[in-house]
DNA-binding response regulator (Micromonospora inaquosa), 238 residues
Amino acid sequence: MSAATHHVPDTGPMIRVLLADDQHLVRTGFRVILEVEDDIEVVGEAADGERAVAMTRATRPDVVLMDVEMPGMDGLEATRQIAADEPGGPAVLILTTFDRDDYLFAALRAGASGFLLKNGTPEELIEAIRVLARGDGLLAPEITRRVISTFARPGDPTGTAHRGPDADAALAELTPREREVLMLLAGGSSNAEIAATIHLGEATVKTHVSRVLAKLGLRDRVQAVVFAYENGVVRPGG
């Protein structure tokens, strides 16, 4: 990635970002890209998962950029620990050079809110950080398709299980409309697409999405996709 050259007006609070990658040059490159943006502040760097968890607790960033393969504790375990610390904690954006399904699903299960490859553009990285800082998950359409296609395969490697009593209890709290919204989320629909499908305004759909996430104890729509397929709420093609 090369440094971005555009800026955005300072219209809100700074987005605090923590960098976790075992390569110093990679961290430096990310810092250069991000610190030219008026609304992003890099609050720390970590070279391994254990340090990433400790620094997240100490600096309380909005977004953590997390590498997967690091010495000692890897990025997936660090993500699990960060996600388990507290509801509404920092969003974790997984950044890796490895475009592998096992990393993708492990990252989503660990509680990551987004997944990007390091060969993306600076603009994609910056936009991803802003999306996650707003509280939205980042699951590109091509990744959604991979999630769905993998869950569709019999004996899939993700270990899909029938939902348990906790999931049943949470799902019972959803209204019929909210369950419909969850099913559309699981298909990768945007708020605009959901609004067009069920003939509601986007603001109303956004409210329904927020209520679904709150009732199911999920951080964002990325986790809603995983929850829906893991718990048999929807089936690909069904």
Q: What stands out?
A: The longest strand covers residues 40-46. The domain at 149-153+161-230 is CATH 1.10.10.10 (Arc Repressor Mutant, subunit A). The longest helix spans residues 202-216.
